[in-house]
From TrEMBL:
InterPro entries: DUF3857. Residues 1-19 form the signal peptide. It holds the Pfam family DUF3857. This is Uncharacterized protein DUF3857.
Length: 657
């Protein structure tokens, strides 16, 4: 039967608007203010190459109860560097026709003799690309874009397979003058929102409406909840050292459907607990259904693994077999696409296919093992208060060893090891699934033991102002993993450049790496080097003993910071040096011994420098006791880091005489 809707009347509106900040205007498609065409710069971010003039989304349910979003976005290009904003890509889940995008309109507006000149993009130049089995993308480039252009596009998005409202990001990589999202949802649907908003709304309107569906005796009436939120003068989000993903830091609203209350029926609850989320995964054929599927020739691996005496040996063996056989196709998804059997035969698959195959094989060897879904650092941090599978983008393997120890395995990374949780999973939650015991628990994934790096320098200071010596660097944990990956990916010559860290006065004469493929030992790098000491002359020699150290430069120079600092793991650095003073020289100025601690005692720094028997002995020790510093802590953190960096790079002065 054809459904007929009748809009009755607005019951009420509650408005909260900041009086001191008038809401910037949006305009119909194709209508432009000449002041915007003549705009030369963003008022609140002067150095921006482009800015969003407005971004407006209207979300509602159509007559068939499909979710629709009509979006209109307008951008101002200030200079040639901003022209890249004219290349648009919009991804959606269109592979199985769950979502579709239609009515795309694209145009560029330029000023010509004091009047707007509109150039529309031909429909044949709007392309649809297949990303994978599930995702598609609308791709287009604006025509005739130049400095001063206004570009705008609009489209209609429809979700016909779920009742999930689209997420809304107020913030992006360029500043935004105004961003607004309006939603109108039937009270038959109950949504939970998760917001990350750092500034007050300039528009915050809520209200309701009443609608009728059907006719005659079959007609029924329901209410809709209406909400409009708007932000103005939103700064761009720039990448900062040691920030988490952009998704974690952008100002945004996420929506989660928690229940449906059908007319005349019982309330149907959706995933609103982690237990429901875990059960949904394990019952899904593209996840839990893969765990018992037999892999080709798996008996060979299983029989060899069972011959080992300890679980650790079994885990190490099976992990290596899977990692060496399988190639990650760079795709992340919390479900399998081709399935473990097909991926195993092709020897390539997404991360979930690789790790569910690993989970299956380990289980066959008798190891107590569980699948776990996680979110990579790039994908974003999981909120434990927001039970939703959409937060996860990868499956891994969880192995509880005892009450104090566990392993998190990911065989999709060629440089991962079985006994070290992958760095990109740290400081977020994982959901592990124990089907037999019906346990679906969140686990916070962290790394309690500090990752160490020890640098030992032995060098002779030559009278002509040079160093000739050796360095031994012992790297543990994540320092080892990152260095090994860099060396194997880039090759020795590029790795030498990495060790030089931009110092053209440093020459790497020899390099030898040991223990690269032994998981239980640190990476040992043995380096022969020569260093010309700048500013030295026949009477004075200046030495900076902070050599081959990751603490050589200070990444926290900016006075202000918008995002939190997340080091991922705790770190411990030890730098020691023995420098032989050349004949005819003596120590003229030695930096003082010093000990310094952050006010919250989270970082300690110690420096010891002394002279003995013609040798200068140097020791720096830096110990981090926490991994995350919130942006409100940044002024104090920055001040400490600057002092520490200055002390690390304070010079030793030798004088002739």
């Amino acid at each position: 039967m054809k459904k007929v809707f009748t809009s009755v009347f607005c019951l009420f509106f509650v408005t909260h608007v900041l009086a001191q900040a008038p809401t910037p205007a949006t305009m119909p498609f194709g209508k432009v203010d000449m002041a915007d065409l003549q705009l030369k710069a963003c008022e609140f971010e002067k150095d921006a190459n482009a800015m969003v003039l407005f971004d407006k989304g209207d979300v509602y349910f159509d007559q068939d109860f499909n979710i629709v979003m009509e979006r209109h976005k307008r951008i101002k290009i200030f200079n040639d560097k901003g022209k890249d904003e004219g290349n648009i890509r919009i991804e959606f889940y269109g592979g199985n026709r769950a979502e579709n995008i239609t009515d795309v309109q694209v145009e560029t507006i330029n000023e010509n003799n004091g009047k707007p000149e509109i150039t529309k993009l031909e429909r044949k130049l709007i392309y649809t690309e297949n990303v994978d089995q599930f995702r598609q993308a609308i791709v287009f480039a604006f025509p005739n874009v130049k400095a001063g252009s206004i570009i705008e596009y609009k489209y209609r998005f429809q979700d016909v397979a779920s009742y999930s409202l689209p997420d809304w990001f107020f913030q992006g990589n360029i500043p935004c003058r105004y961003s607004e999202i309006s939603t109108e949802t039937p009270d038959l649907f109950v949504y939970k929102t998760q917001t990350h908003i750092l500034q007050p709304f300039v528009k915050n309107i809520s209200g309701s409406d009443s609608k009728t569906i059907g006719m005659g005796a079959q007609a029924f009436t329901y209410n809709t909840d209406k909400r409009t939120r708007g932000l103005a003068n939103i700064p761009s989000l720039t990448d900062e050292p040691y920030m988490r993903s952009r998704a974690d830091n952008l100002q945004r609203i996420y929506y989660q459907l928690t229940s449906i209350r059908p007319v005349g029926g019982f309330v149907r609850s959706f995933i609103d607990t982690w237990e429901k989320a875990g059960n949904s995964l394990i019952e899904n054929d593209n996840f839990g259904g893969q765990l018992k599927r037999k892999l080709k020739d798996e008996e060979l691996i299983i029989s060899k693994a069972k011959a080992f005496k300890t679980d650790d040996e079994k885990i190490a063996f099976v992990f290596k077999q899977v990692k060496d056989r399988m190639k990650w196709n760079d795709a992340d998804y919390r479900y399998t696409v081709d399935g473990t059997v097909k991926a195993w035969e092709k020897q390539t698959g997404n991360a979930t296919e690789i790790n569910l195959a690993l989970c299956h094989l380990l289980k066959q060897t008798g190891v107590k093992v569980y699948p776990m879904v996680v979110s990579t650092r790039q994908n974003g941090q999981v909120s434990g208060a927001y039970p939703s599978l959409f937060q996860f983008n990868r499956a891994v393997v969880y192995i509880p060893v005892d009450s104090t120890k566990h392993y998190v395995l990911d065989a999709s990374g060629k440089y991962n090891v079985y006994n070290e949780t992958p760095y990109e999973l740290l400081n977020s939650f994982g959901l592990y699934i124990d089907k037999e015991e019906k346990k679906y628990d969140l686990l916070f994934i962290d790394h309690d033991i500090a990752a160490r790096e020890v640098v030992q320098i032995v060098a002779s200071v030559l009278p002509d102002g040079k160093l000739d010596g050796t360095a031994e660097i012992n790297s543990y944990s994540y320092h080892k993993l990152s260095n090994v990956e860099k060396y194997k990916k880039d090759g020795e010559e590029k790795y030498k450049k990495f060790l030089k860290n931009g110092d053209n006065n440093l020459e790497i004469a020899s390099l030898k790496l040991e223990n690269m493929d032994i998981d239980t030992l640190p990476l040992c790098q043995k380096i022969g080097f020569k260093l010309a000491l700048p500013a030295s002359d026949e009477n004075y020699i200046y030495i900076n003993p902070n050599l081959f150290s990751p603490l050589k430069t200070n990444p926290f120079l900016s006075e202000n910071r918008a995002t939190d600092i997340d080091f991922g793991c705790r770190n411990n650095y030890v730098i020691t040096g023995s420098y032989k003073i050349p004949a005819g020289f003596k120590a003229d100025a030695l930096p003082k011994n010093v000990s310094m601690t952050m006010p919250d005692k989270s970082i300690t720094f110690r420096r010891f420098i002394g002279e003995e028997d013609g040798m200068i002995k140097v020791s720096y020790i830096v110990n981090y006791k926490k991994t995350v510093y919130y942006n409100v802590e940044y002024p104090e953190f920055r001040e400490f880091y600057k002092k520490m960096n200055d002390m690390l790079n304070e010079q030793i002065v030798l004088k002739k005489g």
